[in-house]
Amino acid sequence: MAAASLRMNVSLQRLRHAGFVAGVCLVATVTHAQLTIVEQLELTGTVEAGDVVVERLHFQSLPGLYVTANFYRPETTPKEPLPAILYVCGHGRMKEGEVSFGNKTAYHHHGLWFARHGYVCLIIDTLQLGEIEGEHHGTHHLGKWWWISRGYTSAGVEAWNGIRALDYLATRPEVDMNRVGVTGRSGGGAYSWWIAALDERVAAAAPTAGITDLRNHVVDGCVEGHCDCMYQVNTHQWDYDRVAALVAPRPLLLCNTDKDRIFPLDGVVRVYQSTRRLYELLGAGDHIGLHIAEGPHKDMQPLNTGAFHWFERHLKGADLMAVTSMPAVKELDPASLRVFGMDLPADQLNTRLGFLNDLWNVGGLKYKLVMDLHQHPHTELAQGLTHLAVNHCLYGDVCGRTLNSGVNRLALRLHRQPKVL
What we know:
By secondary structure, the protein is of the alpha/beta class. It is about 35% helix and about 15% strand. It has a nine-stranded mixed sheet with strand order 1-2-3-7-4-8-9-10-11, sandwiched between helices. Helix 1 packs across helix 13 (about 380-395) and helix 5 (about 155-170) packs across helix 6 (about 185-200).
């Protein structure tokens, strides 16, 4: 197949299935894109870290869905817009008593590194481990199997929050939106996949310890160690190389350690090899890489260095032999990075048990969905979601009844057989 024809087919596939990658929740929340993110933004303070300024802020990715974040920028105002990194976080619980500082604080050393090397960096909290603690593990141990039948997954919320975080970055004068990267480890590695697959404003991605194939999940039992946020609503029964393929031909680096028990290396390599074949057919073999470091499932400097070097090359044009000048080192008090005071917003939806219903019914906007999709600034994404939106408006939750071969742990426990692959 000619590269141009294949590229067209890849684009069509991306549009056709984008709405299913993250789940119906993503489609529902697109309806609120007309509410500008700047109007919902609040800056609550700053922290000075030598040559870096950290802004504490929050925005609502839709009314009542709060995203707490830290924005890292150089102390000196840049003469030209800088490349930007959206960093999405793994499952790092950061609490003191009943007060959550948000998992963004567990990864603040990444923000410092980027800000000291000619970038700006936005680190956002997750739904479950943010300052407002919601829920990720509906089917993992809480028995909320209706999440699947309603077409809901916490992966959809994290994907949407990431897309809206990109919307926020687009409002910052320091940001060059032609040079935006996304990265994160563990859960953040998974969200990096969703965001890069769904939003082509991501120019380069380096998901770390966030993907393996269904053979590892189903046959080898890795599913037991994972949160719901690792699994898309898998309507089309995709393996994970299909998600990776949605990033092509943009620069993509898979980062993993050789002793990671929940993202085993053999599955990571299989995803890489399959995806690399597509990149090569597109004439973009130099835009995909595999970075393997020795060690367990931990945030490790060898992994960080690989991702840093990837962004230096693909967002700043650095030479292959370029050397990063310093490691990423933790040096800030997590409490100093907390966005809210002791009182959390009374109108927050993050902790609501009927979360999907709240998102879908807010403001009575259910039947405005299709019209609002056309007004969304991400036209390509909006067009790709319209067919699912129409089905949802016409048939309600029928179109959300999907069996996620990754998330459905109950079925896996009963029928975990090699022959299912």
